[in-house]
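Lecture 7 notes: from sequence to structure.

We start with a single chain of 196 residues. Read the sequence below before looking at the structure.
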Amino acid sequence: MTLLAHLWEGLQDTSPLEWIADATGVAYALLVMRHKRLGWVLGGISSGILTLLAWRAQLPMQALLQFSYVVAAVYGWWSWSRAGGMRPISLWHWRGHLAVVVACLVTSLILSRVLAGESAFPFADSLVFCLGMFATWLLARVHLENWGYWIVIDAVSIYLFVAQGMVAVSLLFLIYMGIAVAGFVQWLRTWRARQA
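Now the structure, written as C-alpha cells:
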C-alpha cells in the first residue's frame, strides 16, 4: 500500500472526536496567534478530547500533556484576562532556554525507562511532554520563543500520531506547525516594531 493510500484510508477511518479536536485546535491556535483570549477556551476543549484519544493510542505522556494543556488553558485565559488585554511580546533569556532543554532531555531519558512497557515511543512521548509544558508557559507569558518550540513539538507529534494510525490528528499537528511558523513571523514583527 502506498503512503498516500495509507493516509487516505486513515482519514476515512477518522472518528468524529478527532475532527472536533482538529477544528477546535486550529481555531485555538489562530486565535492565540492573534492575541484573542477565546482561543484558550477552544484550546481547552481540543486538548480535553486529545487527552482521551492519546490515551487510547498508548501515548500516556501525550495524554498527560494534553490534560496539562486543559489546565494551561485555564491559566492562559486567566493570565491574559489579568493583563487587561495583551501583555507585550518579550524574549526569555538564553540561559533559561539552555537549562530547560537540558532538563527536558534528562527528564525524558528517565521517563522513557519508566514508560518502556506503557508507551509506544517512550523517549519521544516524554520529550514532547516536557517541551510542551515549557512552550505552553512561554506562550501564556507571551514570550516570542514559544513558537520555535511548537515547531519542534509539532514535528515530533506528527510522527507519533501517524505511527499510531491517527492521521487526522497528525494533520492537526501539521496545521499547528504552519500556524507556529506564521505566529513566529507575526509576533517577531510586533516585537521589532515595539523595539524601534
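The chain has one domain: 15-195. Keep this in mind for problem set 3.
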